[in-house]
Amino acid sequence: MLEELAKVPWAVIAPLIVVQFILVVVALFDLRKIYATNGPKILWVFIILFVNLLGPIAYFIVGRKQS
Fold first, then answer.
1. 9 occurs within a structural domain
2. Would 1 be classed as within a structural domain?
3. In angstroms, rounded to a whole number, what is the distance separating the alpha carbons of residues 56 and 10?
4. Number of structural domains, the chain?
5. How far apart are CA 63 and CA 10, in angstroms?
6. Global confidence as pTM
7. H or E element: which one contains 18?
8. For the chain, first and last CA: distance in Å?
9. What is the dihedral angle through the alpha carbons of 43, 49, 53, 58, rounded to the nearest 10 degrees?
10. Angle between helix 41-50 and helix 10-33 axes, rounded to 10 deg
């Protein structure tokens, strides 16, 4: 198991993990403060949390209701 972890290219994966975390946090804060969304807010919470990397991006593109 440790040998497999040693073979993982962490220089590539670590930045993706950081970007994912930042996107999730920003999307959840924005969802909390915005009044109206395209669809129920609870659905967007689940999409943001469980659809890795694409969930927060989908929220910013599709989920936010344009004024």
1. no
2. no
3. 23
4. 1
5. 32
6. 0.79
7. helix 10-33
8. 51
9. 20
10. 170
35 part of a folded domain: yes
Q: Which residues have CB under 8 Å from 47's CB, separation 6+?
A: 55, 58, 59, 63
pLDDT value at residue 67:
62
For residue 1, pLDDT beyond 80: no
Q: Domain residues for 41? A: 26-67
Mean pLDDT for 28-32 is: 93
Please provide residue 16's backbone torsions phi and psi, each rounded to the nearest 5 degrees. Answer: -65, -40
The C-alpha R_g of the chain, in whole angstroms, comes to 15
Residue 37, strand partner residues:
64
- Phi, psi (deg, nearest 5) at residue 60: -70, -30
Q: Which residues contact 6 (CB under 8 A, 6 or more apart)?
A: none
Q: What are the beta bridge partners of residue 8?
A: none
| Residues shown for the chain | 67
